[in-house]
# Entry
Amino acid sequence: MGENQQPAPFRPHQLRVSHDEREAVVERLNTAAAEGRIDFSELEARLDRALNAKTYADLAPLTADLPQEVPAEPLVLKGGMNGATRTGRWRVPAQITVYGGMGSVKLDFTQTECRLPEIAIEAHGQMGGVTIIIPDGWVADTSEMDQGLGGFKDKTTSERLPRTPRIRLAGDGGAAGVVIRHPNSWERRVQRRNHER
# Structure
């Protein structure tokens, strides 16, 4: 390079996008259509452009006129004396901390609609224990969990469906233990009944 030659200016919009970044835009467009912000024909056109996008410059205009999704605040759940549960439809944040306390904590994701690629959960079994229930198709990375006295049980499968979160679970079993699992047969029956209503 000669003395007077300047390097080409860095243009972030020319960087290549990843599959996950394309998928995130597809999810945002589908949500916008479900909310009535864009009609079906426009959704189809934007999805086609999103799936064929090569750079950030290709992707950015597709969601520029849509409101940004506000991430949920981190959740801290404490079992205390009487226990605590988070079940049904609830907004899932990217970070969750649970303390079993004396009464235990149950964290049930089976009816949530979560578009996050990853959820970090810090679980401490303490005296009451913690139970985490994730839908089929979600996977859990539990390599950071410490058994504690109560132990830790991972009863999940390793088959991950597309566009589902990965749970990164850390913490310790405490005295009562921590369990992460998929729904049991009774919970599946309840789910089916709720869907039929």
In short: The helical segments are 19-34, 40-51, 56-63, 185-196. The chain has four helices and ten strands.
